[in-house]
Design goal:
13% strand
Length: 785
């Protein structure tokens, strides 16, 4: 009964506050609701459930879900179901604090739109700007900029938009068949995501009666409207499911357990490939495997312990966080699960991928009173576990690895698996090839733990854990089936939707994926490609900087970042020549023509700034490696990672020295550049290219400038190099016509006071040299001699 009970309570949690959407769309609760429900929105939630769910479930199941409407007044609920109402009430209080009736009444007149969660991240050292106004538009979720991105300003009206959302929500809930409870929950969960991601869970804002103004960050209040109704409801459902354990029932306390899963070795695993035929597809297949792995392991845990998807707080970037209820023996169950995952990964990959599971038990009240300390304690536990990787399977490790050593020879692709008789590549390399090929046409992704369901389909499967399958057509025989990167899942007959980066450029004919050689040919000038790695800076520190840090805010922030990198990045790259190797969570890896990539990565940073409301504390760093298309895959990832590390180290150094001034965000063409340096450098470079193409400036002059400025940078470390200036002006006046002296001097020299070479001068000259390589240009162009 416990698993079924959890699904019913999870549905009660999802629907408990749906009346807020009804209220804001203009519906009214009528008279006399206070005594039974306490608040108008609770009565409207009751009306919603009574109208749409009564005939879809058995009466006793329906009444468990209906108990969610009594979360403000459990005593108003039918006596046999009051304990469920009390659980929802407790979960509500421990996901966000109860608000007073005065706040409820004021909310009817005040702020009606969701504020971006990024506005609540305040790190004083980063120069946070106060009193900024942004809101999220009231539209069903789609991966389009006009829908996803915050809008500047403040809107207080919105009844028509709310009404449209509410009507669509009702229409879709009517379509759900509740006879299969697990499937019904998934559909309801993703329907709420689709329509309530943009709806504030609380519309309250403080009002200063003396000044006659409203403000949205009133210290001590917890109803700043930056948590969506979807995120609040899913976290409430997760807590409520955790409170249903026998331990909590018998002991009459509220104890939970937070579980963090961490997969290590991801970067090395992804790029440990030789450049044999099919390397691009295998690389794409591996990337898909690594993207789905935390989702699969987290789901496997939920399936095993009998919890719904709402108890998965987030998954991505090789990590996941799960919230469970405390019960006797839970630690042993978690240890056994972690051991099972370790065994599966060692048997599959011989220790190339590691896995650690960390957890801490807490009281529910700590989720709002002490959440920062809880998460810090959990992070410390994770760090400790990482130092003991494979400790659960250490005694069996050698035997498990030896099993993989039996075969006729080493796989030429991965160089760690053994081949069987008649194989050209090993089983896993063949699996990744098929996944990479299937990914292009796949419309759906499915999860299950029954191996037999995967037999004739493109999939991967880990023994004892489960598998993931790519489908061109929907197939409801799997436990969970999701539409990829689109939200109209009910119309397609599946359980929900899942976002992940899968955009790839195509060949001009035949619709096949463009290979690396084709991407290089599409570059102008140097026929090379760029391998670009990026991720959000100091994310752990940022999380600890959120005002009134809570599970719902963590869920909102992690979902918002993932929505940008897993979802919107696909839209952003549409019609480009950029290949998405990986994007999700808070990081990405892209491949494409080097020159197009420079423009695109700057534009991506500008759009990320806009998405995060220009909060100076939220940035990402980019490592940019340029190479030949045939460059060994096993090295390019390491090189890109090394470039990104340079940016991170320089940022840390500058933050310690002088705060946020002139922080670099990019390592491009060997240079550390700020966003302003890159933007202005590109503008100057493109202007200079026109002079080269008109033969007003020669490429040989630019090469001399590049070498001269490299010497300056190297000798500057020793205290300076005064010879730079006579040599610079000698080259300028000897090789460039008088009419261009001022322009070239402005491009390379900072004349605002320091008169030093510009920080982006090396980038500019190298960019122009690479971009004009191979063109039919006179080497003596512009030469006055």
């Amino acid at each position: 009964m416990e698993e079924k009970e959890r699904y019913l309570v999870a549905l009660a949690g999802l629907f408990h506050d749906v009346g807020k959407l009804a209220d804001r769309s203009g519906e009214r609760a009528g008279e006399g609701y206070e005594e039974r429900f306490g608040y108008a929105h609770a009565k409207l939630s009751f009306d919603f459930m009574e109208k749409l769910l009564r005939d879809k479930l058995r009466e006793e199941d329906y009444k468990v879900i209906l108990s969610g409407a009594y979360h403000h007044k459990p005593e108003g609920c039918e006596e046999a179901y009051q304990h469920y109402a009390k659980i929802i009430q407790s979960a509500d209080r421990n996901s966000s604090k109860e608000r007073s009736k005065r706040e409820e009444e004021e909310a009817q007149r005040q702020f009606k739109r969701l504020r971006p969660v990024f506005l609540g991240i305040k790190v004083e050292d980063f120069g946070y700007q106060e009193d900024r106004d942004y809101y999220i538009g009231l539209k069903p979720l789609e991966l389009e900029k006009e829908i996803l991105f915050p809008k500047e300003g403040r809107l207080e009206k919105g009844e028509e938009e709310y009404k449209e959302l509410y009507e669509k929500l009702k229409e879709d809930i009517k379509k759900i068949d509740f006879s299969h409870l697990q499937k019904a929950f998934l559909k309801a969960y993703h329907t709420f995501y689709r329509y309530c991601w943009c709806v504030p869970a609380s519309a309250y804002s403080a009002y200063d009666r003396e000044k006659g103004t409203r403000h949205y960050k009133d210290k001590g209040r917890r109803h700043y409207p930056d948590i969506s109704l979807f995120d609040h409801s899913r976290m409430l459902s997760a807590i409520a499911c955790g409170l249903l354990t026998e331990y909590n029932k018998k002991e009459k306390i509220k104890k939970l357990i937070l579980v963090d899963g961490d997969i290590s070795g991801v970067q090395n695993f992804l790029f440990s490939l030789a450049n044999v035929k099919g390397v691009a597809k295998r690389l794409r297949g591996r990337s898909f495997f690594l993207t789905m792995l935390p989702h699969l392991i987290a789901r496997s845990m939920l399936w095993e312990l009998g919890y719904p998807l709402c108890n998965l707080v987030y998954a991505g970037g090789g990590k996941f966080l799960v919230l469970l209820g405390y019960e006797n023996g839970i630690e042993e169950k978690l240890r056994n699960f972690a051991k099972k995952v370790e065994y599966a990964l060692i048997k599959a990959f011989g220790g190339k991928l590691g896995f650690v599971l960390s957890w801490i038990s807490i009281y529910a009240e700590e989720l709002t009173e002490n959440f920062k300390d809880i998460m810090k304690k959990l992070y410390d536990e994770i760090d400790e576990q990482k130092r003991r990787k494979f400790y659960l399977t250490m005694k069996d490790f050698e035997n498990l690895v030896k099993e993989k050593e039996r075969g006729i020879g080493l796989c030429p692709s991965c160089r760690w698996e053994m081949l069987k008789e008649g194989q050209e590549v090993c089983d896993w390399c063949e699996t990744f090839y098929k996944l990479g090929d299937a990914l292009l046409k796949a419309e759906y992704v499915a999860f299950d733990d029954n191996r037999e369901k995967f037999n004739d389909k493109s999939h991967f499967y880990l023994e004892g854990i489960g598998g993931v399958c790519l489908l061109e057509k929907e197939d409801q025989s799997f436990k969970e089936v999701y539409l990829i990167n689109q939200t109209d899942f009910l119309e397609r007959g599946v359980d929900g939707f899942l976002f992940f980066g899968k955009y790839v450029p195509k060949m001009e004919e035949g619709g096949k994926t463009a290979d690396f050689e084709t991407l290089a040919e599409r570059a102008e000038g140097d026929k090379k490609i760029a391998f670009v790695l990026g991720d959000v800076d100091f994310l752990g520190f940022i999380l600890q900087s959120i005002e009134e840090y809570s599970p719902s805010r963590l869920a909102t922030l992690s979902r918002s970042l993932d929505l940008f990198f897993s979802g919107y990045l696909n839209t952003f790259l549409k019609d480009s020549n950029i290949y998405t190797l990986y994007s999700g969570g808070d990081d990405f890896f892209l491949i494409g023509p080097w020159d197009e990539m420079v423009d695109k990565i700057l534009k991506l940073k500008e759009e990320f700034d806009e998405y995060t409301t220009y909060n100076p504390a939220i940035n990402f760093s980019v490592g940019f490696h340029v190479d030949r298309p045939e460059a060994p895959v096993r090295f390019v990832g390491e090189y890109a990672e090394r470039e990104e590390k340079k940016v991170k180290e320089e940022k840390t150094k500058k933050l310690e020295e002088n705060g946020i001034n002139n922080l670099p965000h990019f390592s491009i063409l060997g240079e550390l550049l700020t966003q302003d340096d890159l933007s202005k450098g590109l503008e100057s470079a493109k202007s200079l290219i026109k002079l080269v193409e008109k033969r007003e400036v020669g490429r040989s002059f630019l090469y001399r400038m590049y070498m001269l400025m490299r010497q300056y940078q190297e000798k500057k470390k020793g205290g300076g190099w005064w010879k730079f200036y006579p040599l610079f002006y000698y080259q300028l006046y000897r090789n460039v016509k008088d009419e261009h002296h001022g322009k070239l001097e402005e491009v390379f020299i900072d004349k605002s006071g320091s008169y030093n070479p510009r920080k982006n001068a090396l980038f500019i000259s190298k960019y122009v040299i690479m971009k004009t390589r191979g063109k039919d240009l006179s080497e003596n162009a512009g030469n006055k001699s």
